[in-house]
């Protein structure tokens, strides 16, 4: 009730991890006009706004086709089905990326094998993938976690000669590029999420699939709408209803124009944090490379709880992405093979995230930086 009684509340309040209400302020007139345009059009699902967004997204990524779906998880599920995964197929993914790939794989009855991650960037590498793939592996899901970029070309090279499909999960790295090409264009197909907190966020749920392969694109078009090859003709198995709606598409068209600029602001925040970090006590996970787009400002600390406690006492919000690795989630199917996940296990004990959003103001940034300086002090 009374802020003065609450020891963690300074007069300046709490610095939030993210504040989505601020993300609409700059584009409010354009977004309101977009919503009004859709409402008065009478066309609300898979219409002209979705088609235009799909085209603009494909141009942004530099790929042949982008297709709107209802969420990032659906995008993963549809991508896996479109590359030929089915019940019993073996899918390799990381175990530290929130469980989304595992959920999608489990939803189609596929079997899971987890690969460990690079100790610096916490993403899969060609070596960690090669260490766990087997004769039955059908696909690898490469998650570009936190805005870090995995060596997708290297993983594709390792997989393609073995007939294994590569699905890039770009939910946390839209706009990142590697060797001049955007992530999402290296594998057979990419999955994107427009959940409101993502680097391109809708005012609700949304997702997309991106691919250069016309067969995968056709499969995805059919899978997202009941398995229809044409109206009311159900000719592809495992079809679902997973469509992007016109209001979200119209809003996303506005947001897409600012993705790169907003990523610069996020990167600047992480650069400022890095100046005070890098002691053995707390080290940054993110931002080592040019490719990084700063979805989350993740650090790791062997005594995570006390670092988080110190930050909370100074009014700084934190969160853990992600505390439980997939192979320890009770309701995910057990992997078909035990694999060495030492780096994953340790990362899940040590990582936590700091406030990082483009609209963070100067005072908030300074407060996090000075609280960090105290938190890393011996
Ligand atoms: C958010 C996220 C997803 C899932 O997206 P939804 O739109 O919430 O279903 C998948 N993968 C990663 C890495 C994510 O961060």
Q: How many helices does DSSP assign?
A: 13
Percent range of helical residues: 25-40%
Proportion of residues in extended strands: 15-25%
Shape: globular
User: Which regions are unreliable across 5 or more consecutive residues at pLDDT < 50?
Assistant: 1-11
Largest sheet: 7 strands, mixed
Radius of gyration: 21 Å
Query: From N to C, what is the helix and strand string?
Result: HHHEHEHEHEHEEEEEHEEHHEEHHEH
- Assign the structural class, choosing from mainly alpha, mainly beta, alpha/beta, alpha+beta, or little secondary structure: alpha/beta
Strand elements, count: 14
Structure report:
A seven-stranded mixed sheet has the order 1-9-8-5-4-2-3, sandwiched between helices. Strands 12-13-14 form a three-stranded antiparallel sheet. The chain has a two-stranded antiparallel ribbon with strand order 6-7. Helix content is about 35%, strand content about 15%. It contains 13 helices and 14 strands. Helix 3 packs parallel to helix 9 (about 245-255), helix 4 crosses helix 5 (about 100-105) and helix 11 crosses helix 13. The chain is an alpha/beta fold. The chain is globular, with a radius of gyration of 21 Å. The two termini are about 35 Å apart. Mean pLDDT is about 95; it is low at about 1-10. It binds pyridoxal-5'-phosphate. Pyridoxal-5'-phosphate binds near residues 71, 97 and 172.
């Amino acid at each position: 009730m009374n802020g003065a009684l609450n020891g963690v509340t300074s007069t300046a309040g709490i610095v939030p991890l993210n504040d989505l209400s601020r993300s609409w302020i700059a584009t409010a007139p354009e977004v309101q006009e977009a919503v009004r345009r859709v409402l008065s059009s009478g066309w609300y699902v898979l219409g002209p706004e979705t088609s235009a967004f799909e085209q603009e997204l494909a141009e942004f990524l530099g790929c042949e086709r982008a297709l709107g779906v209802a969420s990032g998880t659906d995008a993963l599920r549809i991508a896996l089905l479109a590359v030929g995964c089915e019940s019993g197929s073996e899918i390799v993914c990381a175990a530290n990326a929130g469980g989304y790939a595992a959920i999608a794989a489990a939803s189609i009855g596929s079997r899971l094998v987890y690969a460990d991650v690079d100790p610096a960037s916490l993403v899969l590498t060609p070596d960690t993938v090669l260490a766990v793939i087997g004769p039955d592996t059908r696909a690898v899901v490469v998650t570009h976690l936190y805005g870090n970029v995995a060596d997708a070309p290297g993983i594709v090279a390792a997989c393609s000669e073995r007939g294994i499909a590569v699905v890039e999960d770009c939910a946390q790295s839209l706009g990142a590029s590697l060797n001049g090409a955007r992530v999402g264009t290296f594998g057979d197909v990419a999955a994107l999420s427009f959940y409101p907190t993502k680097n391109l966020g809708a005012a609700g749920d949304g997702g997309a699939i991106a691919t250069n392969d016309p067969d995968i694109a056709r499969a995805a078009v059919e899978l997202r709408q009941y398995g229809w090859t044409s109206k009311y003709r159900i000719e592809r198995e495992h079809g679902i209803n997973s469509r992007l709606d016109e209001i979200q598409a119209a809003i996303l068209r506005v947001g897409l124009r600012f993705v790169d600029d907003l990523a610069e602001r996020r990167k600047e925040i992480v650069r400022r944090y890095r100046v005070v970090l890098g002691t053995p006590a707390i080290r940054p996970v993110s931002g080592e490379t040019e490719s990084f787009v700063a979805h989350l400002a993740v650090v790791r600390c062997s005594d995570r709880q006390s670092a988080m406690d110190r930050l909370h006492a100074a009014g700084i919000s934190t969160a853990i992405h992600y505390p439980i690795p997939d192979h320890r989630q009770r309701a995910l199917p057990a992997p078909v093979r035990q694999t060495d996940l030492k780096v994953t296990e340790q990362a899940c004990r040590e990582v936590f995230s700091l406030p990082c959003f483009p609209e963070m103001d100067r005072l908030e940034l300074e407060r996090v930086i000075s609280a960090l300086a105290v938190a890393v002090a011996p």
